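Quick check before the chapter quiz. The format below is the same one you will see on the exam, so make sure you can read both the input and the output lines.
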Amino acid sequence: MSAVTWSAEGPILHIALNRPPANALGPAIVDGLHAALDVADDVSPKVLILSSALDGFFAAGADIKHMTTVDATSFKAYGNGLRSGLDRLARHPALSVAAIDGLALGGGLELAMACTLRVAGAQSKLGLPEVKLGLIPGAGGTQRLPRLVGRGPALDLMLTGRQIDAADALRIGLIDRLVDPGTAVSAARALAAELCAASAPAQQAVVRTVDAADALPLDDGLRYEVEQIQQLFENGEAAEGLRAFVEKRQPNFT
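Here is the expected output.
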């Protein structure tokens, strides 16, 4: 059985983790994630959905048993493989939605944070417990979590290693939508369908411009925003979107 499977659903590519008992992010899932992203590069979906095929777990973290058997060189190679997979996901031109139903801990939460948006069932638990193992989040957690929730809440979670429930995760901005238990995948599919209705170039520009807000002074960010909207008007799908609005019809976005 493959640790990662994928299926095309029109413009959506659904990637599912399936490594019992808890989707530990060992080499099998790392390799499977890269293979799924290779497919995404080939088929160019508008939206990726990341979910789990296991009850009670999105992903419970890095593969601790594997980490106890490797030397420093192999540990670095394992970390690099995981980090590069998450970076590929975060930088993919398709929008991505993590569907969390259950535990998303350590590397599992880092995987979810690499997605554009996160939907979580109300019974889910999220956290970065690496300090309890004498480590720190090493697959983007120390960088992505503060950008999502702010410095104080990020330090609280990482310094204590505690878990929070989905309601608290929504309150601090760690997840974007809170849904009934067991419905995260269907909610992610509905969100993906909603995302597919809009212009992909415009959505990509939104992500780029919002990301720039973290990196640029306000005046530079405002100038970057002007550049992005001008490019969309000249070279994107704005002409079709504006014409469809005037003609009172749905736009024919690619």
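If your answer matched, good. The first strand starts at residue 4 and ends at 9.
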